Amino acid sequence: MYPSKSAYTSSQVEGYSPERLVLAMFDAALRNLGWASDALERGDLSRKGTNISKTLAIVNELQASLNKEAGGELAERLDGLYVYVSGRLVEANVENDAEKIAEVRGLLQTVRDGWAEMLEETGPPAAQGSAASAQAGKIYV
To answer: Is 1 in contact with 138 (CB distance < 8 Å)?
Structure first.
């Protein structure tokens, strides 16, 4: 199954390829983390918690979209990263820890940038590859 768009994206992403949708999800997660940091700095703990929760939902969706059979070692490593990131986000939320939010932002930014670079290098997927990945129901990462 491809990542669900309805939970945290708008109609702007309609028609995105699954690969482009993943990039949009990373961007949304990073925006939410920025807003969480700002809210924490202002002492708005409710808004901080809301934005961390939204980020957790995105990370969980990214993790669920992994195709471990086709993605091999990379998918396994991303799965481990998503588990780690989720734990750090929970800790950051409970402890009101700006450093943990910043750590997660750095990790997600690195993966996002790598994903964007891969998309630039490979270009849009071939029609046959997209159909095959849609049949398999998972993003090939």
So the answer is: yes
Question: Between the CA of residue 8 and those of 26, 114, 118, what are the distances in Å?
Answer: 11, 22, 24
Token pair 């669900």 is at which residue? Answer: 4
User: Among all chains, which residue has been given the structure tokens 């669920």?
Assistant: 64
* CB proximity list for 52: less than 8 A, separation 6 or greater: 32, 33, 36, 89, 92, 93, 101
As a whole-number percent, the residues of the chain with pLDDT over 90 amount to 65
What are the φ/ψ torsions at residue 138 (nearest 5 degrees)? -140, 150
**Mean pLDDT, residues 26-45:** 98
Residue 16 dihedral angles phi and psi, to the nearest 5° = -65, 145
Q: How confident is the model at residue 135 (pLDDT cuts 50, 70, 90)?
A: very low
